[in-house]
Write a structure and sequence with these properties.
Length: about 210
Amino acid sequence: KGTNEDVMKINNLIACLNLRMAKYPQDSRFPSDERKNELLNEATKHFNIASQISSHDAISWVGKGNAWYLHLLRNDPNMAMNAFTNATNLASNNIPALFGQARVYYHRKDYRAALKIYQQIMQADPSLTEPDPRVGIGLCYNKLNNFDQAIAAFDRAIELNPNNISANILLATMELDISKQWQQINEEERLTNFATAMRRSNKVLEFNPNYS
């Protein structure tokens, strides 16, 4: 019989495996909604067992938060936020928990709060590029109609990691939108932005043909 710590780690591992299967496709097919719910419920069960053994285990709280976050359309997002907050109470700069909080705020359309969390993540770990908080920062600025800063955030993410697919797609989308604003910009700018967007889109397809 293992120690409590061993049991906690095993339950966290089982939960993480179930969570991963619920999030990612298997054999090129996404799990059905019914199967996804089964996997998320199983993950939550094992995270609960782990957190009952130790309420100071941040992994369990972050895991439960992620499981509940994937249930957001059905459940109260406060459940996910509470779990992420429990993790940050144990360690204020727990990066996975902060990402979780930012995603919930963004889902609630509280873009200023989400932006603040993404900026906290970047300050805590400026070298972090996978996942890159700059993408979240750019998304928030875009929703707040601060397009120059959104573009700057995506540009910086691409500068640090040219293969950042999300940043390239988002920036290409913004460039394409700008090219359509024929009343606000001259023809040369419009064509330049359109051409840049197309080049960036082709670059994304080189990274990952599945985006076609």
